[in-house]
């Protein structure tokens, strides 16, 4: 189980990286943490002719607050999302989702940008980015552009990234303090990709929901957001909610995949229960003042 | 680490300089050669084991700049300038075992021993970052390494014992 | 995870585990006969120092000069004709040494039988590489030898195989269908084995006249050994000495030596097999398989250069040998109290295409063990039939208790019947279990139990898990809509002592320094043989354990043994160690008595010093002094005494040996997600006198967790085209530390009749756990009226079962 041969490139900055990507075209694959790509290469299911390793690209890592958003560099490793107090304070959902990613050895190496660009709908970070409506900063040979999460995730393992583009940072909106956040998921084993899951954020004012975000893990070919449910919840009385009903509505219309670990029916049914659980936890945390 | 720009074609070898168990080493490897294979084949450090080569079993776990990582998911060329610690780097001889190694021995944390180097390195890093872990944290911390012999019973006992011993020092 | 939230008994630490019936020998210097100083102790292992420091030596750690690497080209089709095989591009690739196909490798003169099955055995048609057709996905078609594994895999991709796909035989129904395609066209049908039972007069009447008759079918899915180290071999044919140097990852060195001697038609003497550390096996590596054969033959064809093949994980999962895909239909007759009056079992095994060993069937062993720890109604009250079928899937290999379907089926049947009769499963077992007073007991399958204690382990397990209290807690939980369950599994574990499994030998050499070398035919792959056998020899001989070294894994330096497996080490290898050490002690004491001018019956050795019994502070002589005399001053030896201190004894084991155990487990099922949380898991076992309780508990734990994996996580799935779909560790789910509970152990000690009173137990954990776990799920779902007769029990499957039960209930409810 050895990877096929490839050419290796370790650019030092974003300009060099995008120039390389533009030059190499479809033959190139960006290598970040490598925790998804390298297994595929070992199995020869992925066999890029050229690998552009962005781990040494200056300025791609790290987090900073900027204009009400948390800007997370693409090569920020999962372990930093999990441990950095700045992340926990600004985007608690990101910090809480991170421990669900694989195992600590995976999180030591895996990166936010890698996970999002890989766009596995069963992964946690794409669901968080989608739920919170994060903005993706893509650098290309002609400069950078910003893409909303809804537009970034196109279909199964496919994103808005062009072959010559590099994901450089992701901007997460910072919710006000006293919001509630929660992650609920079911995986076959601890650390496995979720069979189904939900991420939630909620704000409550005077007993009524004033802001809510619900992202679904593993429920479709892309990370989903239960936007219709969010709209119907906004303004409703938090204490009067029928959470089971909310869960059922959140997954209504989804067509979750079926594989050796669970079928479509299971994912839909359990997804609904997990939405209810995540929302219940988030509501408990949210300051109802 | 100075900024570098490295470019190498497929099939040709690259020179990589890294520090392994405190010693400066140089190897010439193809870009596709994993750090695990490089440690085993080019540096003779066969204590790093390959159990799956696709990043699940954890037998190849090493410390890369102090962080426990799967050496099968890192290419050796990526370790340019890095410090790597393998199982061979933990104890100079049988009389200077680390607390983690001693605990594995005293609590029957291994049978066939194949997964053991990966566990020992994972636990070493885990206890460094979580000196007083609870039961659930221990299981979480161990869940990135597979063992097929022990049913994890002795391993969990060993982690508790090592944490206790290290806490006393 | 173990939890006290239910107010159950606190978990016991290993050192507090109850031991019933053990005797703690204590003795001072020269104060008594052989004192047990090492046997029975929780001794840390002597293997560990090298293994925890990365200094073990596994087969992949060998890189003799000139080593070349092997990769296989394998079939991607389950069944079909090979209509084209083009290896030219691969052969021309730089770095490639050779590309070999059936044309070069296969030979009609090859013999394929294992020593255990014998030349007369009805085996599977043998071949090394696929020639004109392919019979399972993963079947090796060609092997590429190159300067590195990377290059070998590159070249393997260049081999062009053209296969005309044919309909494969997948599953029992397809294999048994009228006019089914034959997996092996050389054979008449897909039946690999049939275990018929002679007509038992009056058998049918037992059912006709019984108050109750129940019939149920239990399915088990395919799951695998999955040692953390895959298979591997380094082979070098020396063209000048005409000898094969073979190192492999296996369970012993002697079977490969004999096997390849027969296969290649060369004397045993021309083959030297060594084995270093081995990273687990669980049955998979007991017998060399086709890939090893191919490498050995290729090494001979190439000559001079060492060939190395290390199976990768995908190869291991796809083609390394599979297990456990079985079905059993059980019919039992009982009286109103649940007393078993008669039983009939019909067992079906899927042995794949190329099983190992022989035809892969374990139904014969299962037939013997099916009556288990229960009385039934004596001889003639139980009947067992079995069939094994070939399919176009990976062949079956041995896996820890290959016959375990008898326990998986029987123990589930006990629960099903108990529930139907309104009897608690514990009470049902109490009414049928064989008690100590009934020993020796001849089972309905005519096996004679002499030293088992199933009733005692049943009671101990029930007490340890707090069975009665759990039932009350369960009732309260059920009232809240929670799904709690308890499962029991009671069994008798055999160790077979027939054929080539009947003996083990130990050769002991006391060095002039007094150090003790023990050569054994064992092939340890995690069983702690270097520790346990040293414990036995140190005690029996009377030397410090640090003076004893166990040598194994070298065919030139050790006596024949069939390999470590079949739970035989404690009783059989232990028997040899006891016997050889006793003989050595006699020799040593004879010389010592002469030196001390005492009678041999008056002297004893403690810590390698011989003194006269009852004379503390009297004259002594050390083992080194005795050895010095024996080797270098032979004229000073007592008259008639043989010079030197070298003895060898081969121990012949009884035909059958038995241990027994009871597993008890409590679980809670999350009704919304189908996830199972194991609350507590208790094993009460009787393996006779324990050599090292730490090792005993380690063996149990490993087996139990393999059962947990099997029931809840691991599943090798084939699609209808015969494609395996769970071929990486991302899909074939081995449990982690987060999925297992803290195990609790109870020990009942009934010494066996073998030397030392030890019994084997290596397989039991894996034999009994699946039934206990499925029974717990069945119990948890009982209030819903659910039927749980199959595995694997993934969360998805559990929700399906719950929903099926709920909709059945809804249908029955009049609207």
UniProtKB/TrEMBL annotation, chain A:
It comes from the Bacteria. Pfam families: CO_deh_flav_C (PF03450), FAD_binding_5 (PF00941). GO terms for molecular function: FAD binding; oxidoreductase activity. InterPro entries: CO_DH_flav_C, CO_DH_flav_C_dom_sf, Diverse_Substr_Oxidored, FAD-bd_PCMH, FAD-bd_PCMH-like_sf, FAD-bd_PCMH_sub1, FAD-bd_PCMH_sub2, Mopterin_DH_FAD-bd. Keywords: FAD, Flavoprotein, Oxidoreductase. This is Xanthine dehydrogenase family protein subunit M. Residues 1-177 form the FAD-binding PCMH-type domain.
From TrEMBL, chain B:
The keyword S-adenosyl-L-methionine does not apply. GO terms for molecular function: 2 iron, 2 sulfur cluster binding; metal ion binding; oxidoreductase activity. Pathway: Alkaloid degradation; nicotine degradation. Keywords: 2Fe-2S, Iron, Iron-sulfur, Metal-binding, Oxidoreductase. CDD domains: fer2 (cd00207). InterPro entries: 2Fe-2S-bd, 2Fe-2S-bd_dom_sf, 2Fe-2S_ferredoxin-like_sf, 2Fe-2S_ferredoxin-type, 2Fe2S_fd_BS, Beta-grasp_dom_sf, Diverse_Oxidoreductases. It comes from the Bacteria. Residues 14-90 form the 2Fe-2S ferredoxin-type domain. This is 2Fe-2S iron-sulfur cluster binding domain-containing protein.
């Amino acid at each position: 189980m050895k990877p096929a041969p490839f050419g290796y490139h370790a650019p030092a900055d974003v300009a060099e990286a995008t120039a390389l990507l533009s030059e190499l075209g479809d033959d190139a694959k960006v290598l970040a943490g490598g925790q998804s790509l390298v297994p595929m290469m070992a199995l020869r299911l992925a066999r890029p002719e050229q690998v552009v390793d962005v781990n040494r690209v200056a300025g791609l890592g790290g987090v900073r607050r900027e204009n009400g958003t948390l800007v997370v560099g693409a090569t920020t490793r999962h372990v930093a999302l999990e441990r950095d107090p700045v992340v926990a304070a600004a985007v608690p959902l990101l910090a809480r989702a991170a421990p669900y990613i694989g195992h600590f050895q995976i999180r030591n190496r895996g990166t936010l940008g890698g996970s999002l660009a890989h766009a596995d709908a069963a992964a946690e970070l794409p669901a968080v980015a989608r739920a919170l409506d994060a903005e993706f900063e893509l650098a290309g040979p002609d400069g950078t552009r910003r893409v909303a999460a809804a537009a970034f995730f196109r279909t199964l393992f496919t994103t808005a990234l062009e072959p010559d583009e590099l994901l450089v940072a992701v901007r997460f909106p910072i919710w006000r303090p006293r919001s509630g956040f929660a992650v609920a998921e079911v995986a076959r084993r601890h650390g496995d990709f979720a069979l189904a899951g939900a991420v939630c954020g909620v704000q409550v004012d005077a007993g009524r929901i004033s802001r809510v975000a619900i992202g679904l893990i593993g429920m479709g070919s892309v990370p989903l957001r239960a936007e219709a449910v969010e709209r119907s919840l906004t303004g409703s009385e938090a204490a009067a909610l029928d959470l089971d009903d909310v869960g059922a509505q959140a997954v209504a219309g989804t067509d979750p995949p079926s594989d050796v670990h669970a079928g479509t029916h299971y994912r839909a049914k359990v997804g609904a229960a997990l939405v209810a659980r995540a929302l219940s936890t988030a509501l408990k945390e949210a300051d109802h003042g | 680490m100075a900024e570098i720009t490295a470019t190498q074609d497929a099939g040709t070898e690259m020179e990589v300089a890294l520090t392994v168990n405190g010693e400066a080493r140089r190897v010439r490897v193809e870009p596709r050669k994993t750090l695990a294979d490089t440690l085993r084949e080019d540096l003779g450090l066969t204590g790093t084991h390959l159990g799956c080569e696709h990043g699940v079993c954890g037998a190849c776990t090493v410390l890369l700049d102090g962080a426990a990582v799967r050496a099968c998911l890192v290419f050796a060329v990526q370790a340019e300038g890095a410090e790597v610690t393998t199982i061979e780097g933990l104890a100079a001889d049988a009389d200077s075992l680390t607390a983690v190694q001693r605990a594995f021995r005293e609590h029957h944390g291994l049978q066939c021993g194949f997964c053991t180097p990966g566990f020992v390195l994972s636990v070493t890093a885990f206890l460094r970052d979580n000196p007083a872990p609870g039961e659930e944290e221990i299981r979480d911390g161990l869940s990135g390494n597979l063992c097929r012999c022990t049913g994890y019973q002795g391993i969990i006992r060993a982690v508790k014992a090592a944490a206790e011993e290290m806490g006393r020092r | 995870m173990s939890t006290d939230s239910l107010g159950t008994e606190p978990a016991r630490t290993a050192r507090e585990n109850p031991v019933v019936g053990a005797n703690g020998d204590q003795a001072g210097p020269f104060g008594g006969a052989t004192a047990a100083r090492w046997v029975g102790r929780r001794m840390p292992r002597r293997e560990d120092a090298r293994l925890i420091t990365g200094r073990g030596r596994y087969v992949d750690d060998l890189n003799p000069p000139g080593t070349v690497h092997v990769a296989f080209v394998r079939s991607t089709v389950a069944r079909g004709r090979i209509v084209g095989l083009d290896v030219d591009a691969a052969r021309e690739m730089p770095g490639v040494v050779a590309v070999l196909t059936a044309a070069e490798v296969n030979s009609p003169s090859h013999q394929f039988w294992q020593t255990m099955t014998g030349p007369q055995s009805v085996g599977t048609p043998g071949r090394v590489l696929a020639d004109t057709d392919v019979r399972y996905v993963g079947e090796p078609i060609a092997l590429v030898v190159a300067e590195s594994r990377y290059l070998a895999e590159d070249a393997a991709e260049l081999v062009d195989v053209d296969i005309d796909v044919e309909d494969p035989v997948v599953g029992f129904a397809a294999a048994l269908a009228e006019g089914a395609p034959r997996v092996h066209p050389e054979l008449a049908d897909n039946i690999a084995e049939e275990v018929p039972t002679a007509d038992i007069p009056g058998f049918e009447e037992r059912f006709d006249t019984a108050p109750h008759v129940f019939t149920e079918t239990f399915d088990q899915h395919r799951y695998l050994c999955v040692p953390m180290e895959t298979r591997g071999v380094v082979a070098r044919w020396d063209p000048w000495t005409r000898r094969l140097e073979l190192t492999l990852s296996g369970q012993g060195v002697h079977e490969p030596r004999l096997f390849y001697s027969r296969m290649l038609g060369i004397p045993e003497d021309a083959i030297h097999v060594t084995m270093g550390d081995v990273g687990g096996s669980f049955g998979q590596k007991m017998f060399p398989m086709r890939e090893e054969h191919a490498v050995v033959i290729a090494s001979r064809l190439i000559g001079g250069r060492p060939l190395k093949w290390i199976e990768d994980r995908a190869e291991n999962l796809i083609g390394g040998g599979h297990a456990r895909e079985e079905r059993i239909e059980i019919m039992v007759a009982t009286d109103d109290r649940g007393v078993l009056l008669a039983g009939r079992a019909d067992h079906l095994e899927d042995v794949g295409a190329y099983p190992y060993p022989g035809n892969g069937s374990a139904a014969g062993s299962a037939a013997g063990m099916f009556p288990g720890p229960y009385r039934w109604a004596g001889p003639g009250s139980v009947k067992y039939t079995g069939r094994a079928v070939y399919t176009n899937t990976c062949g079956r290999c041995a896996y820890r208790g290959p016959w375990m379907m008898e326990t998986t089926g029987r123990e589930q049947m006990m629960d099903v019947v108990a529930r139907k009769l309104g009897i608690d499963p514990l009470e049902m077992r109490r009414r049928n279990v064989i008690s100590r007073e009934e020993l020796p007991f001849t089972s309905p399958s005519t096996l004679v139990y002499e030293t088992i204690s199933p009733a005692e382990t049943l009671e101990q397990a029930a007490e340890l898990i707090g069975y009665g209290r759990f039932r009350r807690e369960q009732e309260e939980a059920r009232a809240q809509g929670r799904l709690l369950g308890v499962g029991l599994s009671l069994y008798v574990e055999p160790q077979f002592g027939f054929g080539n499994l009947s003996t083990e030998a130990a050769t002991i050499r006391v060095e002039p320094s007094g150090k003790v070398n023990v050569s054994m035919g064992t092939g340890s792959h995690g069983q702690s043989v270097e520790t346990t056998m040293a414990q036995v020899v140190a005690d029996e001989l009377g030397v410090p354990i640090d003076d004893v070294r166990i040598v194994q894994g070298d065919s030139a330096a050790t006596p024949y043994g069939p390999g470590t497996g079949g739970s035989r080490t404690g009783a059989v290898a232990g028997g040899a160690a006891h016997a050889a050490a006793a003989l050595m002690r006699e020799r040593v004491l004879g010389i010592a008595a002469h030196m001390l001018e005492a009678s041999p019956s008056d002297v004893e050795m403690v810590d390698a010093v011989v003194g006269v019994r009852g004379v503390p502070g009297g004259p002594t002589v050390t083992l080194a002094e005795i050895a010095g005399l024996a080797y270098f001053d032979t004229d000073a030896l007592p008259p008639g005494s043989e010079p030197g201190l070298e003895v060898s004894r081969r121990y012949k084991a009884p035909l059958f040996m038995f241990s027994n155990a009871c597993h008890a487990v409590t679980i809670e099922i999350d009704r919304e997600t189908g996830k199972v949380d194991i609350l507590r898991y208790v094993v009460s076992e009787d393996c006779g006198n324990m050599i090292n309780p730490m090792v005993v508990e380690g063996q149990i734990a490993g087996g139990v967790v393999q059962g947990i994996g099997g029931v809840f996580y691991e599943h090798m799935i084939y699609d209808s085209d015969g494609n395996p779909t769970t071929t990486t560790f991302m899909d074939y789910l081995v449990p982690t530390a987060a999925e297992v509970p803290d195990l609790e152990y109870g020990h009942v000690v009934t010494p066996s009749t073998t030397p030392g009173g030890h019994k084997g137990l290596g397989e039991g954990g894996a034999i009994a756990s699946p039934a206990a776990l499925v029974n717990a799920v069945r119990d948890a779902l009982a209030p819903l009226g659910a039927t749980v007769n199959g595995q694997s029990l993934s969360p998805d499957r559990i929700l399906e079962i719950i929903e099926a039960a709920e909709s059945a209930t809804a249908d029955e409810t009049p609207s």
